[in-house]
Amino acid sequence: MKKNVFISILLVGLLGVLAACGSSSASSTDGERTITLGYFPNINHVPAMVAKAEGYYQEQLGDNITIEYKTFPDGSSFMTALKTGEIEAGLVGPGPAMNHYTTGTDVKIIAGGSTGGTVVLARDGSGIETVEDIAGKTFITPRVGCTHDVQFETYMKEAGITSNRTGGSMSQATGKPAQYEALFESGEIDVAVAPEPWASVLHQEAGAHVIIGADEVSFGQTLPASVLVTSGDMVEQDSEMIQQIVDAHKQAITFINENPEEAKEITITDIEEETGQALSKEVIDGAWGNIGFTYEVNANEVQAFGDSSYDLKFLKEQPDFSDLIDTQFID
């Protein structure tokens, strides 16, 4: 009798383990699910802000889906969240997506989000007036090897100036873009490689000088500045939900391009809620001119960017991104 009871308990426990192993990264109860979408509080990620504010995600996914949102300060923390199942999808810079893909992370770029938006500025009083003056100075980016970092260092290498990471003279610091103004004021850094709208904040409110414009920096007008990503497992296991997320994303981009003033107001509100910083309409207007919004992805530019990341020693091996991009949801 005791033996039969023990076997029954063992079977119940085993079934529980098997059920847990088969569950999705999104929580579900009686047909209802909770999914989490990620993005950054900057202008390259406006499609996520608009889709959230206008209810496009909810409209596409349906009432049985509870949607939660999580913002990130940099691509590394975003990619960690994607790997661990903390988020199901979201917007991130192409650099982190590529870097993590090369180390075996299960990630798929399923749509573009924006282009442009990376500006290089010098602190007032730094003595920097030209690109050549940056040699020997300290620059800041959100993260080592992030999209903005690769764009800047590619440009600088072509000018014959490299960072001390690769034997050159420039020193690098990293930090949240919303903190760059304070770092300029303290004199801790000389050059900021800033995504919008923080570039416009530095220019308009801190008196920083634009040294390399968004249309000049490497890959500035051709590389996706943000991409919509998910995991390959999500694509295989729940392609219907991924299609719904992409459809909401496309709705948002259409809204942005047709209603820029309304999109700007949404951006100002969302950034203040997420960062506590209230940006003026003038700052947003200035930043908007450096950004383009599209869900298309240029695979050749993604590969060229990856090759440059390898050349700059951010990647250990020559990358092959032929399987990174999946355009089935936007075609």
Describe the protein.
With 331 residues, this protein is an alpha/beta fold. The protein has two domains: 32-115 and 223-311, Periplasmic binding protein-like II (D-Maltodextrin-Binding Protein, domain 2, 3-Layer(aba) Sandwich), CATH 3.40.190.10; 118-212, Periplasmic binding protein-like II (D-Maltodextrin-Binding Protein, domain 2), CATH 3.40.190. It has helices at residues 2-21, 46-53, 56-61, 75-84, 94-102, 147-158, 180-186, 198-205, 232-237, 239-258, 260-275, 281-288, 299-311, and strands at residues 27-29, 32-39, 65-71, 89-92, 108-116, 118-122, 138-141, 171-174, 191-195, 209-212, 224-230, 291-293. Strand 1 (27-29) and strand 2 form a beta hairpin. Helix 8 packs across helix 12 (281-288). The chain is globular and about 60 Å long. The model is unreliable at 1-25 (pLDDT under 50).
CATH superfamily of the largest domain: Periplasmic binding protein-like II
Query: Would you tell me the overall average pLDDT?
Result: 90
The CATH architecture of the largest domain can be given as 3-Layer(aba) Sandwich
Radius of gyration: 22 Å
| Uncertain stretches of 5 or more adjacent residues | 1-25
Total helices: the number is 13
Counted up, domains total 2
- Helical fraction equals 40-55%
Number of strands: 12
Strand content: 15-25%
CATH level-3 fold name of the largest domain: D-Maltodextrin-Binding Protein, domain 2
Order of helices and strands: HEEHHEHEHEEEHEHEHEEHHHHEH
Main CATH class of the largest domain: Alpha Beta
Pfam families: NMT1_2 (PF13379)
Organism: Paraliobacillus quinghaiensis
InterPro entries: ABC_SsuA_sub-bd, NrtA/CpmA_ABC-bd_dom, Solute-binding_3/MltF_N
GO molecular function, one term: ATPase-coupled transmembrane transporter activity
